[in-house]
Amino acid sequence: MKLYNFFRSGTSHRLRIALNLKGIATDYVAVDLRVDEQQNDAFKAVNPQQMVPALDTGDKVLIQSPAIIEWLEEKYPNPALLPAGTDERAHVRALAAIVGCDIHPINNRRILQTLRKQFGANEDAVNAWCGHWISEGFDAYEALIGADKTRGRFSFGDTPTLADLYLIPQVESARRFKVDLTKWPLIMAVEKACMELEAFQKAAPCQQPDAG
User: Fold this and answer.
1) pLDDT digits (tens, 9 = 90+) for 80-93
2) pTM of the shown model
3) For a disulfide at 174, which of 38, 66, 179, 182, Cβ 3.0-4.6 Å?
4) Dist. CA 155–CA 96, nearest whole Å
Protein backbone atom coordinates (compact mmCIF):
# COMPACT_ATOMS: atom_id res chain seq x y z
CA MET A 1 0.00 0.00 0.00
CA LYS A 2 1.01 3.61 -0.57
CA LEU A 3 0.04 6.33 1.90
CA TYR A 4 -0.08 9.81 0.40
CA ASN A 5 0.16 12.20 3.32
CA PHE A 6 1.80 15.22 4.91
CA PHE A 7 3.61 15.03 8.23
CA ARG A 8 1.71 17.90 9.87
CA SER A 9 -1.73 17.07 8.50
CA GLY A 10 -4.09 16.08 11.32
CA THR A 11 -6.08 13.78 9.05
CA SER A 12 -2.89 12.08 7.88
CA HIS A 13 -1.71 11.80 11.49
CA ARG A 14 -4.89 10.03 12.62
CA LEU A 15 -4.65 7.57 9.74
CA ARG A 16 -1.00 6.82 10.52
CA ILE A 17 -2.03 5.95 14.08
CA ALA A 18 -4.76 3.62 12.81
CA LEU A 19 -2.37 1.86 10.44
CA ASN A 20 0.23 1.46 13.18
CA LEU A 21 -2.30 0.06 15.65
CA LYS A 22 -3.45 -2.43 13.01
CA GLY A 23 0.16 -3.36 12.23
CA ILE A 24 -0.14 -2.40 8.56
CA ALA A 25 2.98 -1.17 6.78
CA THR A 26 2.70 1.32 3.91
CA ASP A 27 5.05 3.13 1.57
CA TYR A 28 5.19 6.76 2.68
CA VAL A 29 4.53 9.21 -0.15
CA ALA A 30 4.96 12.81 1.00
CA VAL A 31 2.66 15.48 -0.45
CA ASP A 32 4.08 18.83 0.64
CA LEU A 33 1.19 21.14 1.50
CA ARG A 34 3.63 23.96 2.26
CA VAL A 35 4.25 24.37 -1.48
CA ASP A 36 0.72 23.33 -2.54
CA GLU A 37 1.96 20.07 -4.02
CA GLN A 38 -1.55 18.67 -3.55
CA GLN A 39 -2.69 20.95 -6.37
CA ASN A 40 -0.34 19.39 -8.93
CA ASP A 41 -1.85 17.38 -11.75
CA ALA A 42 0.04 14.28 -10.61
CA PHE A 43 -1.69 14.24 -7.25
CA LYS A 44 -5.03 15.28 -8.74
CA ALA A 45 -4.88 12.03 -10.71
CA VAL A 46 -4.55 10.19 -7.38
CA ASN A 47 -7.24 12.15 -5.53
CA PRO A 48 -9.50 14.49 -7.51
CA GLN A 49 -10.31 16.34 -4.27
CA GLN A 50 -6.60 17.21 -3.96
CA MET A 51 -6.47 16.57 -0.23
CA VAL A 52 -4.48 14.22 1.99
CA PRO A 53 -4.49 11.50 3.08
CA ALA A 54 -5.10 9.03 0.29
CA LEU A 55 -4.41 5.31 0.59
CA ASP A 56 -3.57 3.34 -2.54
CA THR A 57 -4.40 -0.27 -1.68
CA GLY A 58 -3.08 -1.62 -4.97
CA ASP A 59 -6.62 -2.20 -6.20
CA LYS A 60 -8.07 1.25 -5.61
CA VAL A 61 -7.35 4.60 -4.01
CA LEU A 62 -9.28 5.40 -0.85
CA ILE A 63 -9.78 9.01 0.25
CA GLN A 64 -11.19 10.81 3.30
CA SER A 65 -9.67 9.66 6.58
CA PRO A 66 -12.99 8.65 8.25
CA ALA A 67 -13.83 6.39 5.30
CA ILE A 68 -10.32 4.92 5.20
CA ILE A 69 -10.31 4.21 8.94
CA GLU A 70 -13.73 2.55 8.67
CA TRP A 71 -12.40 0.44 5.79
CA LEU A 72 -9.40 -0.57 7.90
CA GLU A 73 -11.68 -1.48 10.80
CA GLU A 74 -13.85 -3.67 8.57
CA LYS A 75 -11.00 -5.31 6.68
CA TYR A 76 -8.61 -5.68 9.62
CA PRO A 77 -10.89 -5.96 12.67
CA ASN A 78 -8.15 -6.76 15.20
CA PRO A 79 -7.25 -4.91 17.27
CA ALA A 80 -10.65 -3.24 17.29
CA LEU A 81 -10.87 0.55 17.28
CA LEU A 82 -14.52 0.49 18.39
CA PRO A 83 -16.00 -1.18 21.48
CA ALA A 84 -18.44 -4.06 21.20
CA GLY A 85 -21.67 -2.48 22.50
CA THR A 86 -23.85 -0.27 20.30
CA ASP A 87 -24.20 2.45 22.97
CA GLU A 88 -20.46 2.41 23.58
CA ARG A 89 -19.72 2.63 19.86
CA ALA A 90 -22.00 5.65 19.58
CA HIS A 91 -20.15 7.30 22.47
CA VAL A 92 -16.72 6.73 20.91
CA ARG A 93 -17.93 7.92 17.51
CA ALA A 94 -19.34 11.06 19.12
CA LEU A 95 -16.01 11.85 20.77
CA ALA A 96 -14.25 11.39 17.43
CA ALA A 97 -16.83 13.60 15.72
CA ILE A 98 -16.18 16.47 18.13
CA VAL A 99 -12.74 16.66 16.59
CA GLY A 100 -13.48 15.38 13.10
CA CYS A 101 -16.62 17.43 12.47
CA ASP A 102 -16.51 20.45 14.78
CA ILE A 103 -12.85 21.37 15.38
CA HIS A 104 -10.60 20.19 12.57
CA PRO A 105 -12.61 21.21 9.48
CA ILE A 106 -12.68 24.91 10.41
CA ASN A 107 -9.05 24.96 11.52
CA ASN A 108 -7.43 23.19 8.59
CA ARG A 109 -4.95 24.77 6.24
CA ARG A 110 -7.27 25.88 3.45
CA ILE A 111 -9.57 27.65 5.92
CA LEU A 112 -6.65 29.40 7.59
CA GLN A 113 -5.23 30.41 4.22
CA THR A 114 -8.57 31.94 3.33
CA LEU A 115 -8.58 33.88 6.61
CA ARG A 116 -5.11 35.18 5.81
CA LYS A 117 -5.50 35.97 2.13
CA GLN A 118 -9.12 37.08 1.80
CA PHE A 119 -9.81 38.53 5.24
CA GLY A 120 -6.37 39.88 6.17
CA ALA A 121 -5.98 37.88 9.36
CA ASN A 122 -2.52 38.03 10.92
CA GLU A 123 -1.00 35.14 12.86
CA ASP A 124 -2.35 36.35 16.20
CA ALA A 125 -5.86 36.41 14.72
CA VAL A 126 -5.40 32.96 13.18
CA ASN A 127 -4.21 31.55 16.51
CA ALA A 128 -7.17 33.16 18.28
CA TRP A 129 -9.57 31.65 15.72
CA CYS A 130 -8.08 28.19 16.14
CA GLY A 131 -7.92 28.51 19.90
CA HIS A 132 -11.59 29.43 20.12
CA TRP A 133 -12.85 26.37 18.24
CA ILE A 134 -10.36 24.01 19.85
CA SER A 135 -11.40 25.26 23.29
CA GLU A 136 -15.09 24.81 22.59
CA GLY A 137 -14.54 21.26 21.39
CA PHE A 138 -12.09 20.30 24.12
CA ASP A 139 -14.43 21.65 26.83
CA ALA A 140 -17.11 19.25 25.61
CA TYR A 141 -14.65 16.36 25.17
CA GLU A 142 -13.30 16.84 28.69
CA ALA A 143 -16.82 16.89 30.14
CA LEU A 144 -17.84 13.73 28.31
CA ILE A 145 -14.84 11.67 29.31
CA GLY A 146 -15.08 13.02 32.84
CA ALA A 147 -18.66 11.80 33.09
CA ASP A 148 -17.65 8.27 32.07
CA LYS A 149 -16.92 6.68 35.44
CA THR A 150 -15.68 3.42 33.88
CA ARG A 151 -13.40 5.12 31.35
CA GLY A 152 -9.94 3.74 32.09
CA ARG A 153 -6.71 5.33 30.81
CA PHE A 154 -7.85 6.27 27.31
CA SER A 155 -10.80 8.23 25.95
CA PHE A 156 -12.83 5.07 26.41
CA GLY A 157 -11.73 2.01 28.33
CA ASP A 158 -8.18 0.75 28.72
CA THR A 159 -7.20 0.42 25.07
CA PRO A 160 -7.01 3.04 22.29
CA THR A 161 -10.15 3.62 20.25
CA LEU A 162 -11.25 5.71 17.31
CA ALA A 163 -11.65 8.66 19.66
CA ASP A 164 -7.95 8.67 20.54
CA LEU A 165 -6.98 8.57 16.86
CA TYR A 166 -8.79 11.86 16.42
CA LEU A 167 -7.85 13.46 19.73
CA ILE A 168 -4.07 13.13 19.68
CA PRO A 169 -3.47 14.92 16.35
CA GLN A 170 -5.76 17.70 17.54
CA VAL A 171 -3.72 18.07 20.73
CA GLU A 172 -0.62 18.36 18.55
CA SER A 173 -2.35 21.04 16.49
CA ALA A 174 -3.49 22.89 19.62
CA ARG A 175 0.12 23.21 20.73
CA ARG A 176 1.07 24.60 17.34
CA PHE A 177 -1.58 27.28 17.73
CA LYS A 178 -0.39 28.13 21.25
CA VAL A 179 -3.49 26.88 23.08
CA ASP A 180 -3.11 26.45 26.85
CA LEU A 181 -3.76 22.74 27.28
CA THR A 182 -3.57 22.76 31.08
CA LYS A 183 -7.30 23.59 31.10
CA TRP A 184 -8.07 19.97 30.18
CA PRO A 185 -6.25 17.64 32.60
CA LEU A 186 -8.21 14.56 31.54
CA ILE A 187 -7.32 15.09 27.88
CA MET A 188 -3.69 15.55 28.91
CA ALA A 189 -3.80 12.27 30.84
CA VAL A 190 -5.22 10.50 27.79
CA GLU A 191 -2.45 11.95 25.64
CA LYS A 192 0.14 10.68 28.12
CA ALA A 193 -1.32 7.16 27.98
CA CYS A 194 -1.42 7.22 24.18
CA MET A 195 2.12 8.49 23.78
CA GLU A 196 3.44 5.58 25.82
CA LEU A 197 2.46 3.35 22.87
CA GLU A 198 4.77 2.84 19.89
CA ALA A 199 1.87 3.17 17.43
CA PHE A 200 1.33 6.76 18.53
CA GLN A 201 5.02 7.58 18.88
CA LYS A 202 5.81 6.43 15.33
CA ALA A 203 2.85 8.35 13.91
CA ALA A 204 3.92 11.69 15.40
CA PRO A 205 4.61 14.47 12.88
CA CYS A 206 8.23 14.88 14.04
CA GLN A 207 8.92 11.22 13.21
CA GLN A 208 7.91 11.45 9.55
CA PRO A 209 10.44 11.58 6.69
CA ASP A 210 9.13 14.90 5.38
CA ALA A 211 9.28 16.66 8.77
CA GLY A 212 12.73 18.11 8.22
Assistant:
1) 999 999 999 999 99
2) 0.96
3) 179
4) 10
